[in-house]
Amino acid sequence: MIKMNVHKSIHIDAAPAKIFTVINDLHQWERWSPWVIAEPTAEITVAKDGKYHEWDGKIIGSGNLKIIEEVENQLVEMQLNFLKPWKSTATTRFELEATKKGTLVHWKMNSSLPLFLFWMKKQMQVFVGMDYDRGLLLLKDLVENGKAHSQLDFHGTSHFTATDYIGITTQCSTQEIGENMERDFTALMAFVMKECQNIMNGDALSIYHKFDVIRGKVKYTACFPVTAIPEKLPEGFISGRVPDLTTYSIRHTGPYHHIANAWAAGMMHQRGKQFKPAKSFPPFEVMRNSPKNTPPNALISDILFPMKV
Q1: How far apart are CA 189 and CA 184, in angstroms?
Q2: Which residue in 90, 155, 211, 247 has the most C-beta neighbors within 10 A?
Q3: How many whole angstroms separate alpha carbon 219 and alpha carbon 174?
Q4: If you write DSSP's letter for every residue of 17-57 in order, what string do you get?
């Protein structure tokens, strides 16, 4: 067997005791699970004492989680058993480290892969690590604000009407995407407001041509739809066209740092055969309102996956 280990952490502005009461009670799991958010209709059963949890869903599979060790305000260790889509076991552990301003929460997993799947080790560690990052952000939100402000609405099959666009294409690391996208949209907005207000044709888009989470690289185009392409574009700007598409649509409402929940849910729904992806155009995001004049908890983005029909 090939050992597989994941370790993620986050700082939460709360005492260890407050966090401990959330993570040692599996009745709370649905409120911040990075998996249940992808299928809120999954069947969930929790033992009365909150120490045992079962799930069964079409998207997230089935399995159970049992708390096997606790040290008050310090750690919670769980045994994790996956039953579907394949059988496996793992030990997952939360460790709480008090700081001057709150608590550093560590989420660790120890598991293994069959020897013949050695080539999947890095990929699996990356994907599980991304899930843990999403979960820790949801936990932080829940503990600090009383609610995890990340809501998904599964709109399913929808139609996107073709549009031309002007934009900026950027290649960068996944760690740099937030900073670079803010820069790109700022430059685009300055040009659009000065030169193109009369030809605007909808909400801002982000088209993801490549998103390699294993190597940590991304290529995207930040753009605005227009009814016509201006004759002259600033240096570094491009033009293009999104065709008529049938898409699988997931809406995210909440702070943008939770947007990965919608993308992850889309990938889970794809694996769960809710739709067949089309290769004719990459997935993209439609920003339904602007962070410039919208409270973070009210931000809305639609994630659209082109699909075969």
Answers
A1: 9
A2: 247
A3: 9
A4: HHHHHHHT-GGGGGGT-TTGGG-TTSEEEE-TTSSEEEEE-
The C-alpha atoms of residue 203 and residue 33 are separated, in whole angstroms, by 30
Q: Please, which residues have CB within 8 angstroms of residue 220's CB and are 6 or more apart in sequence?
A: 169, 170, 177, 181, 206, 207, 208, 209, 211
CA distance 79 to 183: 44
pTM, to two decimals: 0.93
153: Cα separation from own chain's centroid:
14
Q: Would you state the pLDDT for residue 119?
A: 60
φ, ψ for residue 256 (rounded to 5)? -65, -20
- Mean of pLDDT over the chain: 93
pLDDT tens for residues 113-134? Answer: 666 666 666 777 888 899 999 9
Specify the pLDDT at position 113. Answer: 65
- Angle between helix 16-23 and helix 121-145 axes, rounded to 10 deg: 120
Q: In whole angstroms, give the CA distance from residue 111 to residue 128.
A: 11
**What does 157-195 look like in DSSP terms, one character per residue?**
EEEE--EEEEEEEEEEEGGGHHHHHHHHHHHHHHHHHHH
- Rounded Cα distance, 276 and 159, in Å: 15
Backbone dihedral angles phi then psi of residue 83, each to the nearest 5 degrees: -110, -40
115 contacts 2 by C-beta, under 8 angstroms: yes
Q: What are 46's two structure tokens?
A: 């929790």
Side chain identity at residue 86, one-letter code: W
The alpha-carbon radius of gyration of the chain (Å, integer) is 21
Q: What are phi and psi of 106, to 5 degrees?
A: -105, 135
Cis preceding-peptide flag for 291 (omega within 30 of 0): no
